[in-house]
Design brief:
Largest sheet: 4 strands, antiparallel
Number of helices: 2
Shape: globular
Strand order of the largest sheet: 3-30-29-28
């Protein structure tokens, strides 16, 4: 039987064979329950194929405009709009995506502190009032090495997505060195735009720092004032599990870097706090390290307290972390919908899980062989869950210099019952 994404279901074969009573006449036996197909859940819709660049993020406006980002390696741009099923155009323009130093063939990449250029975006997110936010790590890969963050390279930039928008930034927020370190890696971001959650009156942003090299934690930003601070810095809930070994398509995975002091050696995933989602009521932030199957949340009121204004703020936040249990797969991206369900990418099971905050139960939502490392998740206002599929573990930086990914990469959607979380006045 031919099985495709349009007919996703779980088929079970029960085989009962008589057991012979004589030795050499014994027929070959099989167990009573055999899984012959590993698909489950709603139908997948293929939304886009990425033939050129390697995507991580995806986001969608209320009018249906789609945007992706591409961490800087060999990419000519790091943020783009998807204009049809196979075409992407640099956003807001080619110039913003082209820092002058990266065009200097004799000394590329060593000036990464630009405020007005995208250095290397790891996430794009549309907020409740349809602004597109670009999260820039400020840390491109140049000649096989990830550069340290410098100056105003790490930043959070907002754009209007209205049809007549100029393409100029509405807001640019940069970070002091005691909040985003040189070896930080700003990974993903979520927004609460209610005026009463920040002193600046324009809401807050929550950002994960997933650095492989440095301290993991959460960064909180007052959008109105631009002030930022850290919480859960090197807290156990933000760190990778030192014993974690993932498995993809039935094969265990030990990353092997082709460069650095341990080039060619088996290693473990060291990436910390990565996926992030905010609850439909804004009261909880859900998060998890990439290098762990554990899942956590914290009441957002603890994160919104500035450590500089309350000497007990860091201790309260640390004590307020809730461990929600382990899952059958680690996760990259997280997202929530307006009905309170949390969606969790599941690279090890080729699918997406859900978490119900009322029952505290994890459930399988969708699974299909096409889902080869679901990365970022995004919910649209018309009740669809979008997600990128990018074969992350097969990239050359984890395969001792051999790129085992197979283009094109994919963007899928599935129907869900809830819509986009919209925390605004």
């Amino acid at each position: 039987m031919a099985l495709t994404a349009s007919g996703i279901s779980l088929f079970l074969l029960a085989i009962a064979s008589p057991v012979a009573s004589q030795g050499n006449d014994t027929q070959q036996q099989q167990p009573g329950l055999v899984t012959i197909n590993s698909t489950y859940g709603p139908d997948l819709t293929l939304e886009h194929l990425y033939y050129d660049q390697w995507p991580t993020g995806i986001t969608v406006t209320s009018s249906g405009r789609l945007f992706s980002n591409y961490p800087r390696g060999e990419s000519p741009y790091t943020v783009a709009e998807l204009v049809d099923q196979t075409t992407e155009v640099a956003y807001p323009n080619n110039e913003t995506n082209s820092p002058p130093s990266l065009a200097n063939a004799s000394n590329p990449g060593y000036a990464t502190g630009y405020r007005d250029y995208f250095i290397s975006s790891q996430s794009v997110v549309v907020d409740a009032i349809d602004r597109l936010w670009v999260l820039d790590t400020g840390r491109p890969i140049v000649n096989g090495s990830r550069l340290l963050a410098y100056g105003e390279g790490p930043k959070l930039v907002a754009y209007s997505t209205e049809g007549n928008a100029s393409g100029e930034p509405l807001i640019t927020i940069t970070f002091p060195r005691n909040v985003v370190y040189a070896d930080s890696y700003l990974n993903d971001v979520r927004f609460d735009l209610r005026s009463d959650v920040s002193s600046g009156g324009h809401g807050v942003a929550y950002v994960t720092d997933s650095s492989d090299e440095g301290r993991n934690g959460l960064v909180v930003v007052d959008i109105g004032t631009g002030e930022s601070w850290r919480h859960l810095d090197s807290h156990p809930s933000t760190l990778a599990d030192a014993s974690f070994v993932p498995s993809y398509n039935g094969q265990t995975h030990y990353p092997v870097s082709p460069s650095g002091p341990n080039a060619g050696a088996w290693s473990r995933t060291r990436t910390g706090s990565d996926g992030i989602a905010i609850s439909a009521d804004g009261e909880y932030l859900y998060y998890c390290p990439l290098g762990s199957r554990d899942f956590y949340r914290i009441a957002t009121r603890h994160l919104r307290t500035l450590p500089s204004s309350d000497p007990a703020a860091l201790l309260r936040a640390s004590a307020a972390v809730e461990h929600l249990g382990g899952r059958p797969s680690h996760a990259d991206g997280l997202e929530a919908d307006s009905e309170g369900i949390i969606y969790i990418s599941a690279p090890e099971t080729n699918g997406i899980l859900t978490f119900n905050p009322d029952t505290l139960k994890f459930s399988e939502f969708v699974r299909a062989p096409e889902i080869q490392w679901p990365d970022t998740l995004a919910v649209s206002t018309d009740n669809k869950l979008y997600f990128t599929v990018n074969q992350l573990w097969l990239q050359d930086s984890q395969q001792n210099g051999t790129d085992r990914r197979v283009k094109p990469y994919g963007l899928y959607s599935v129907p869900i019952s809830g819509g986009r979380v919209e925390l605004t006045d």
